[in-house]
Design a protein that fits this description.
single chain, 171 residues, globular, DinB-like domain-containing protein, two-stranded antiparallel ribbon, DinB-like, DinB/YfiT-like
Length: 171
Amino acid sequence: MNENLIPKEGEYAPYYGKYIEKIIGQDISKLLLNQIEEVRRYFESKGEESSGTAYGPGKWTAKEVLNHIIDTDRVMTFRAMCFARGEKASFPGFDQDIYVANSDANQVPLMNLLEDFEMSRYALVSMMKTLPQESFTRFGNASGHEVSVRALFHIMAGHTLHHLTILKERY
């Protein structure tokens, strides 16, 4: 395990601690890739029709949750790349509810969503392999909080684990 990849407290907003705590100490690159198969297994067991349903009124469907994971990965990956390259501009937050509402995820075939998740994860891990080691400890500002590049990678993996747990428990 590369110690340079493990974020420390203070490298992310306290809100994200619940995601990072779930996966701290794991090989983050391997975890990000292993989640591809875990997500695929879950959704293939649910099937197309069941994935378009929510567990309650006003809740996202399973497909919308998957699309939300993909959107979050993309936003966090963009932030990580920018901060790794030394970007000093502050990045705004993003309203996940607006993103989900405008995604039309329930109209996208499940296999397309799964492929999108897989490809975006491969691109993320590929980027991680090409970043200079010193860039993992660089910081930027997103949503009004300082965050390190390595914390962003952990946030993505922990966020996915968080939603997988909810999917398995409630859907």
